[in-house]
Every structure is written in C-alpha cells, then in structure tokens.
Amino acid sequence: MQYSQEFKEKIISEVKEIKSISVVCRKHKIPTTTVHGWLKKTSETINLKSKVKNKDLKFENKTLRNKLADSELELMILKDLLKKTYLN
Questions:
Q1: In Å, how far are 12, 15, 45, 74, 84 from 18, measured between CA atoms?
Q2: For position 41, what pLDDT does the model report?
Q3: Which of these, 46, 39, 37, lies nearest to 18 by C-alpha position?
Q4: What is the pLDDT of residues 40-71, one digit of tens each?
Q5: Global confidence as pTM
Q6: Alpha-carbon distance 34 to 72, whole Å?
Q7: How far apart are CA 78 and CA 37, in angstroms?
Q8: Dist. CA 48–CA 43, nearest whole Å
Q9: Residues 35, 36, 40, 44: what is their CA dihedral angle, to the nearest 10 degrees?
C-alpha cells in the first residue's frame, strides 16, 4: 500500500510523542515493519519505551534476587522465633 508523505510524517510524529511504535500501528492499522522502515529512512533517532538495556535487566534481576533472599531469611528467623515463643 502507498502512503502519502504527509501521512508518514504524521505517524512518525505520533511515534515520537507516544514513544511506542506498536501502539501507533495498531491505532492506524499499519504493519510495524512499515513504520520501522520509515524511521530508518529518517536520520532522527527516537527513544522508545521498549528499548531496555540487557545490562539494566540483569542488574534489576540481581537486586530482586537479593531482596528475595533477604526476605526469605527474615521469614525463617521470624518463624523460628514464633515456634520458640509458643513452646515455652
């Protein structure tokens, strides 16, 4: 399908504003690959919401694992104290 230059510019500006290609494409019923192609032809870069760095995810995962381990240890200690309290 052929799209006018005006329509392409409108879609690209919407993507910049919303920061999500998939949302804009669903709204206008356009394939995401089409919009990705339009964006490649422009020299501008757009920071999208979905661009999360793998390094950030690994750090967050490690942090959450540590918090979980701390919480499990705390729970074990509290359960142990509770048993000792009621046994006396």
A1: 10, 5, 14, 42, 57
A2: 86
A3: 46
A4: 888 666 666 655 667 778 888 999 999 999 99
A5: 0.51
A6: 48
A7: 57
A8: 15
A9: 70
Residue carrying the six token digits 């490649």: 40
Distances from the Cα of 23 to the Cαs of 8, 18, 46, 62, in angstroms?
15, 8, 15, 31
Task: Determine phi and psi for 5, rounding to 5 degrees.
Answer: -60, -35
Amino acid at 80: D
Q: Give residue-wise pLDDT tens across range 5-29.
A: 999 999 999 988 888 888 999 999 9
> Which residue in this structure is represented by tokens 């032809």?
41
> Residue 47 carries which side chain, given as an amino acid letter?
N
